[in-house]
Predict the structure.
Amino acid sequence: MVVRRVLVTAVLLFGMSATAHAEILAAGSMYGGPTQNQAICYLFNGSSGVITIQTNQIIRQDGTDLPLVGDNCSSLAPGGTCLIAANIVNNQTHSCKMVITPSAADVRGTLEIRAGATVLNSLELR
């Protein structure tokens, strides 16, 4: 019984320490105008280590997590860039959220709202 309690405690502590080092980068809500049809969220790793993207999402103003039509973000080597993309509706604001580990001061990102190849609006992830 004591061994089990020690094991459970160790698992809980390990799990909490991994979560404590995660960082959320987010941008939004943003509107590009009545012609907007795509949201693209870019992430750049300017740090010296590999980062892992635990979760990523593009969210409509009503809280709907949109299905991604592009996603090459899972882990990101130093100097690497990845993106997620979603088709969006033309009359609502949209946001982007990425959760990364480990926390890295030199990771940057941008959310773009587009009409085809034309960028209508952009905002830095913070």
In short: Residues 2-18 have pLDDT under 50 and may be disordered. The radius of gyration is 17 Å. DSSP finds one helix and nine strands in the chain. The longest strand covers residues 51-60.
